Amino acid sequence: xxxxxxxxxxxxxxxxxxxxxxxxxxxxxxxxxxxxxxxxxxxxxxxxxxxxxxxxxxxxxxxxxxxxxxxxxxxxxxxxxxxxxxxxxxxxxxxxxxxxxxxxxxxxxxxxxxxxxxxxxxxxxxxxxxxxxxxxxxxxxxxxxxxxxxxxxxxxxxxxxxxxxxxxxxxxxxxxxxxxxxxxxxxxxxxxxxxxxxxxxxxxxxx
Length: 207
What we know:
By secondary structure, the protein is mainly alpha-helical.
């Protein structure tokens, strides 16, 4: 009888522990997000945030499928809780409203590479992004990020060179008569990265 009561107490305790964690980590944040709405800046017609559309929305799926979230975060910590702002990863901390239209939210699990919450604001050049994807050391010498050259196609030049062919030089240049062009997946991924801009002033972020 004693062992049965003890077993029941252990079961109830374990269930309560998991239930409490689930409520704290899932239910309460979900309810908090449910109360939020997009915010407009006083004196302008600009509304933030907006749902991703078109090529950027397609690129989000590529970002997930290529595992980018395993090496990059999308969360700028507040001053006093790290050096994110000092590093130039953002000019304010990210807050729940920043992720209003994201499902799932891609906070990431580690920072093998820099935070990408505002990469679209930090780097606006599409060609830079494409070169970085093709081989990161072209734009960032010493980078340990693996190349995503399989998202590009090497093809023979017929007539005029393609408008979107990568401007590769020296050791990176393809063989004579050939060019390297981004696939649709590469273009979509770059569109998604360029859309990452969480610099809109929000009151809850102290801006």
